[in-house]
Structure formats: C-alpha cells, structure tokens
Fold each of these.
Amino acid sequence: MIRPTRPEDVPSILRLVRDLAEYERAAHEVEATEEDLRRSLFGPEPKVFAHVAERGGEVAGFALWFLSYSTWLGRHGIYLEDLYVDPEARGHGLGRALLAELARIADERGYGRVEWSVLDWNAPAIGFYKSLGARPQDEWTVYRLTGDAIPELARGREA
C-alpha cells in the first residue's frame, strides 16, 4: 500500500533515512532528527513531501520529494530526494509502486519531469531505474554548496 506520510510515520522515515545513508556509505553525514522531519513535512508551509510503502501494516519504504521547476518546459517537476525500501521488503514492487505514485502525481498536475540522482556505483538501483524507462543525464554534473562555503559566499568571500 502506498500512501502520503502521516506524522506518526516520522520515526520510521528517519530509520529508513539512516539505513539509506548506511548503504550509501555516508551514515556519518546524517544530522536530521525526528523534529527536523516533522517540521519539514508537517509545518505550516511544507516544502517537502513524502509517501510511504506499507507491507504487513509496517512502513517498509519511502519516497521523499519536493517541487522543482524547468524554465525550458515552463512547468514544475518532482525532484525525488530519497527512495528507499527495506532490503527484506524488496522484490515485492514497493519501489516501483512509490515511483508510479510520483509519476501519477506529476501526470495529474501537469508536471514535466520526475528526476533524481543515483550514485554511479549503485548498479542495482541503476538497473531498476532503467527498467522503468528512466534514462541517465550523463552530460550534467551535480554541484553543491555546503558547510562554510554557504556563509562565505553569502558574505562575499571566496571559499
């Protein structure tokens, strides 16, 4: 069963975030707390959204996303920040169902894209995404400002 997340799902989502970070060899980078997620998902003006996949009445996967915008298309899109399904729940169509729900939302609302990033070494995920018809955007390189670089740039100094 795929459904929008509810406040009581936050502990499960944080557990899945931590599991995903562990899988991606970046557990030490997770700073998010339950309160951070609760505020982001259910605050007065949420800017991020999530859907969960239930299996046997338990949250077994999630998709966390937000709106993007394409100036070329002149339309919004969905940027999928995280998609993760518990290893023991894989193979039952939960990941596909989560992505299908995001595609349904995009189609229903007239959005032009559903996009996400995947680590180049994550062959199982890459194979899965390609099986759904997704194609890599190899000509683009992701850049990121983080940590001290943000306030330094904001104050007009070089990082």
Amino acid sequence: MLRFLCLFLLAGPALAQTPAVVPTAQASALKTYSLRLRPGDDLRQQLTAFVQEHHIRAGTMLTCVGSLTVATLRLANQEGPSVYKGHFEIVSLVGTLSVNGSHLHLAVSDSTGRTIGGHLLDGCRVYTTAEIVLGELPEVEYRRETDPIFGYKELVVYPVPPAPRKKKE
C-alpha cells in the first residue's frame, strides 16, 4: 500500500499535465465463431480473410491454441519484422479484429519453454493446427484513426446504428 501511495504521489504532477481523455465504451451482444486452420496456412492472412468474408466490423480473439513452424512478429519498439523458424506452440493470441483493420499480438514458446511475443504479421505458418474461437460484437464498429498525441492509428469504437425498419405494404 505504501508503494502505491508513493507511486501515486510521484506520478501526480505528470498525471496533472496529461489531458483528460474519456474512453468510449459500447455494449454489444456477442456472436461466436469456431474454426480450425490447417498445416501451412498463414495465421494472419486466414484471420483477415475470415473477417472480410463475414463482414466483421468489431471482433475479438477469444482463444487460439496450436503450433507454428514460422513465427513472424514485430517486436516492441522495432520497425521491421523478426522471423523465427522451428517448432512453436501458440500460447496466446489476443487482439481486436475488423474489416477496418485489426490489431493482434501473438506469443509463442519453443521446445525449451522460451516465450516471445509481439505484433502478429503475415508469414506465421501453421504446423499442425490452429484452433480458434472468435467473438463478433454486431452492435459495435471498430475503426482505426490517427491518435493526435502519438501519430499511430489507434482503435476508436462506434455504435452501429440500428437497421432501418422495413415498411409494411
């Protein structure tokens, strides 16, 4: 508790200088999809194709387990990809999915248990399987808009307007 209080007191001046940002939150029902990728499939490309085919405006990775022979990641604070070849277990795949752009992070471990993670990029090849459960939030739309503070395209959440009612004839 004392550590928390000290951190709070030390961070106080920095927090006071940060502009107040009110997060947007939108509620939605959840629709789920289950799928399996096969050996040789590109993990990111298959997810992107699935999102496009099903017109998913707002989705989330609920779970993914499986294995890869190639893991292609963009590591923290790096510009380009890092490519790892071997046999890897998928220990985590998390993020948001949308026809407007997705943001996914992958963690994999090797035969010694060494784990590495970063942004999921094209080039991750399935070894035996990738068992995936995706969630879709049909009442929400995810968009990527440039954040004025950092300059990166970041998530902005919008409500989906209700579909117009059809007139009775």
Amino acid sequence: MSEQPQLLLAHHLKSLKLPTFSREYDKVAQQCAAEGMDYARYLLRLAELELIERERRMVERRIREAKFPAVKSLDSFDFRALPSINKPLVNELARCEYILRRENIIALGNSGTGKTHLVLGLGLAACQKGLSVGFVTAASLVHELMEARDEKRLLRMQKQLAGYKLLIIDELGFVPLSKVGAELLFEVFSQRYERGSIAVTSNLPFDEWTEVFGSERLTGALLDRLTHHVHILEINGDSYRLNQSKMKLRPAQRPSLEDNGQNPEPSPR
C-alpha cells in the first residue's frame, strides 16, 4: 500500500477509535493471505482482535475506577488454610448474579482471616463482568462524607456512591463512629437498599455493631436493610497473616543442639 492511503487509513481508523485495527491490519492481512482467507474472514479476525482489546481496556478502567488497594483474584485465595469458608458460595458469588438481583454480602471474621481478599476477589470478578465497583474503608468513607457535607457537595457524593453496581465497604467496626458519621453512613446503606449491592467486611458479630454506630435504633434499622437480601460469609479461625509469619519464624527460632545440651557431630572440613 502506498504512503498516502496508509496515512489516510491510519487517520480514519483513529477517528473511528479503532486502534487495534490500525495496529494489526497489515500483519493480519499477510496472515490471512497466507492462509487463503477471504475478505470477510479477514475483517472478522480484525473485529475480534478489536473487541478483545477493547474489553481488556474496559476491565482495566473499571479496576482503576474501583480504587482497590490491591488487585487480588479468588484464584490466589488459599481456601485450604481457612476451611470454615463456604467455598461453593464464594464460587457462586463470583458469577455476580447477586449484583443483578441487588443482593448484599457480609463477610464476618477475625482480623487477618482473608475477608478483604475475598471481597477484592469478588470485586475483580464484577469488573471482569462489566459491572462498576467502588471500594472504600468504612472510616475513609465516613471521613469523605463529612468533608462533602461541610463543603456542600454531599448530594453529589451520594449520587456517585449510588451509581456503583457494587459498593465494597471494608473494615466496618475497626473504628467507632461519631453520631454524625454513623448517620451519614446509614444514609449510604439506606439509599442503596434494593437499588444496588453492598459488600461489607467486619471483625465484629452483629450483636456488637451497636458499639460502632452508638445507637440501637440506628443499628437495628441498618441491619434490617442490609440483611434483607444477603449472603453471609463467616470466617472462623486464627489470623492467616499471623500464622504465615509464625511459619517463617520457626526455622530461625528452632533451638540448636548445643542449646539443648547435646554435642553435635563435628562438621566435615
């Protein structure tokens, strides 16, 4: 192809926002010619490459917009280390049909038992399914809501939060909330009730949530909405991170034969 048509083609493909076409058309043309493919199959292969690349970029954009603290998949979760987790339920949730039904998830368990990893994996699965996701810790969310209220942009922030198909609120219960903070957080839950899914992680059982929100009435109303359509993941056991640290320390802390009062065999020289 002469230089002028190539320049025009590159310009048109850029205007049409078909970067993969522009990058791959010449190479694919040579491959299809060598394989004896007709024009329709050539265009089909280019279109497939464009769609694959477009979907990859869309997934990457959704992951960035979710603001995950780390990108973790369920494939990297060690279910064997935490046998109390309902793995079939987690696999079912990874299909993301609960989001289409506007149902919620609550992951309860001690610190370090993998709750955040689980919801991050489910959040990643939702991004890969084409669904919008937002991630925030409970303390950060309350802080941002109070700032937004003071700066007269609370309604805009609430609208943004309501727009996510899945909103992940991590570490609920780590920090007690002020009366205003608890009421603002309750509004987030209330506005999403039967309109969008929420995934919550907490280190506290339900009967201790009053300590966080400071009001039995408010806590009861929140739990009533949150648990109406809910999947509960209870994670019993010791901290996975702590156990991993202990495993790493054991060889270094193992006493030598001399410490035990035994005479080791002389080492070869």
